[in-house]
Amino acid sequence: MTDTLTAPTATRGLVEITGVRKSFGPTEVLKGVSLTVEPGGVAVIVGPSGSGKSTLLRTINHLEKVDGGHITIDGQLVGYKLRGDRLHELREKEILKQRTDIGMVFQNFNLFPHLTALENVAEAPVVAQGRSKEDARRRGLELLDRVGLKDRAGAYPRQLSGGQQQRVAIARALALDPKILLFDEPTSALDPELVNEVLDVIRELATSGTTLIIVTHEMGFARDVADTVVFMDQGQIVEQGTPKEIFSNPQEPRTRSFFSKVLEPAFNI
Amino acid sequence: MSSATGVAQSQQSQPVPAAEAPPAGTGTSGAGGSATEVAPRVAKDYSSYRVVAAKHPWRWVGTAVVALGVLAVAWSLATNPRWEWGVVAQWFTAQSVVNGLVETLKLTAISGVLGFVLGFILALMRLSASPLLVSVSWTFSWIFRSTPLLVQMLLWYNLGYLYEKISLGIPFTDVRFFEVQTTTLISQFAAAVLGLTLNQAAYSAEIIRGGILSVDQGQLEAAAALGIPAWRRSTRIVLPQAMRAILPTAFNEIIGLVKGTSIVYVLAYSELFYTVQVIYNRTQQVLPLLLVATLWYIVITSVLSVFQYYIERHYSKGAVRNLPLTPLQKARKFFATHAAVPNRRNS
């Protein structure tokens, strides 16, 4: 049971996003986005702020309800159930169950400040998956060890550095054995020198068979780790392809102008 | 004394009072140009000097004036015979006073607990997505915060005048499961509890709502993303964090409630304040008996304050890097540091 995480199981975690629309008030932030991420694949979404990257990520685990289109994971609709010819919105309980398959790591970590690192990691497996406390604790320590923080298990988030907090948050997301992990700008709130310790953990995950969808501004990291790079602008996917295609030879003028601003001159494939 | 540090400084050890050689090329006054000419600076070694703390003469004057004032008040309290401390001592632990005290504590505990439970429900209603629940909760707080507690109290006690009987049944039909005379149901005690509870609920609802709102939205999102069920989300994630904002004001309310129970005297309910009134109406020792009640209220408040301190400390776990010291630990530290030689050396 525990080794489902480490063994590459590239048979689960297929994400299919089809024509997703979403508005906040009068602003349409997603204008019909379609994207497929293969099981075990690593998709990195880049683009200017306000392009809808984070919103797209949040629709995948139904933190944002879509206004149109749909998302499936391994063929199963997210947030809805097809009954007859109607889509019924799932009840809270069912949505929560779906979410245990989808881990999420936030820009601001969102660790629970009143719980220790270990308690943060071991909370969800007990209440959302009904594991025993002892089991969750043991597994929590394993995961903290995996992100290099076993010796800080008893520390409260505020006693940890930003990079350490984010690594705890990753361990917390892994504790549910998710098929898919969503990263919402996981290094944006970190000091430059702390970025790499977090990226190293994500790099290691990229080879583990879990599907990763990552929103980031770290272009070098995107180039290293991604199977697919997706460039979004103004609520639409402008271009997608392998890192080589997107970074070295972008086809769309919008993509080119974006990269000319964010990539330093020395950045080459 | 200075030898050890002198060695540490070593290399270019000029004797301590290194005269600051003014930079050579002052005429040019431009920056970088003469950088090579500047003689290597020798950092002055201060480690062998004694540190003298800054003097605060006015602080001492202020302290003396206030101390004098405190002394004067204490002196007058102790020596003015009209305080009648003997009478105070005589009544302080009298059976009737203690009985009144117990009633006061009972009222406080019951209406405090019920008030906060109801307040919690009202706060959740106010935060719900249903417009009806929101407006009912809002109206409740509006009404009970706008009417004087005294009026509420009298109203509940005289409910029997408005509604002779209270019955439980199916509305708009003649089916009645249960019917009772209002006056037998609403005793003085019931009216007191009802009035205090409902009033307390209106205030605590706002306090709890404020606390819940103070918790970062990201916490709820993270909990939802982890599949943690709604009830658990509130009790395990949001409330413990909200408590930090809730507790100081909540204790304010509880302390207010302790003294607020004295208003129940209008119902001739024999809590502490009413009991004392009855006694001084008989003995005419008004001030000493008011003092008896006051001292008891002070005692209750003090005990509550101690609870408050430790409960707040408990909930600050994780919110501060290191927990603040308890008064006991502080005292120990104070004596540990101040018992040592007062003139601190920089060593």
What does this structure look like?
The complex is a heterodimer of chains A (269) and B (347). Chain A is α/β, with parallel strands linked by helices and 269 residues long. Helices cover 35% and strands 25% of the residues of chain A. Chain A contains 9 helices and 12 strands. In chain A, the strands form 3 sheets. Chain A has a 6-stranded mixed beta sheet, sandwiched between helices. In chain A, strands 2-1-4-5 form a 4-stranded antiparallel beta sheet, covered by helices on one side. The N terminus of chain A is likely disordered. By secondary structure, chain B is mainly α. Chain B has a two-stranded antiparallel ribbon. The N terminus of chain B is likely disordered. Classes of the chains: A alpha/beta (269), B mainly alpha (347). Chains A and B meet through helix 2, strand 8 and helix 3 of A and helix 10 and helix 11 of B.
Detail the topology: elements first, then pairings:
The complex is a heterodimer of chains A (269) and B (347).
Chain A: E1 15-24, E2 27-37, E3 42-46, H1 53-60, E4 68-73, E5 76-77, E6 80-83, E7 86-89, H2 92-99, E8 102-105, H3 117-129, H4 133-146, H5 162-174, E9 180-184, H6 192-206, E10 211-215, H7 219-225, E11 228-233, E12 236-241, H8 243-248, H9 253-262
Parallel strand pairs in A: 3-10, 3-11, 8-9, 9-10
Antiparallel strand pairs in A: 1-2, 1-4, 4-5, 6-7, 11-12
Chain B: H1 2-9, H2 57-79, H3 85-92, H4 95-127, H5 131-146, H6 149-157, H7 159-162, E1 165-169, E2 176-181, H8 182-185, H9 188-213, H10 217-225, H11 230-260, H12 272-283, H13 286-315, H14 327-338
Antiparallel strand pairs in B: 1-2
